[in-house]
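Re: that chain you flagged

S.,

Sorry for the slow reply, it's been a week of failed gels. I finally had a moment to sit down with the sequence you sent. For the record, here it is as I used it:
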Amino acid sequence: MENSSYDPYVTERIRRFDGTLIGGCYLAPFMYLKQESTTLLNGSNIVSNHNQLSDALELIIIPLMGNSLAHFLQAPENYSSLQMKNVRIGINYASLVMYATALRKAAQHFSFWIYDLAPPGTCWENIASFPFSGIVLTDEFFNDNYLKFSFPFLLGSCREREAEVILRTQQLSLPMAKYEDLQISGWQEQRTSTTLFEV
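Prediction finished late last night. Pasting the structure tokens below so you have them in one place:
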């Protein structure tokens, strides 16, 4: 049975490992529809109070890529609602490389999370030098790497930057304490088998 209190714009919840709800990640395809206004996202300000989950969220994640990200970067002053202190803009590594200069300029006023930490061909300097406030690990990346000797050092360096380290997965497979030992700060409930950023 569908929960009628679950906001239709929110696709995935973000929780601490004690179950505390700390955020919501908005549905990516919704963001790519033709905009009716340069000041609002798709004709309705999805950051406004009436479009949030019933409880106040610590974090609201707005994923942007492609034309949506390009429009945002052309006139970031038109997106003042995305500067709210609990709002984060989610981008992927391909966007970081493509719009590096504009994103660095925007990062002076907006807060960014990266959603695919290490796709093939990643230059770690690009990630290390960008002021991300959050890093979201895919389930695949986590499963391939969490037993490696270098993994705790990678996550430790993220936490030293005071960046949230979130695992995006459909289901947690390890005991909660294991994730906390690895310095992962929470998890995003993946509701589909697709990536957050559809091409």
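What I noticed first: Confidence is low (pLDDT under 50) at residues 1-7, 29-46, 48-54.

Talk soon,
D.
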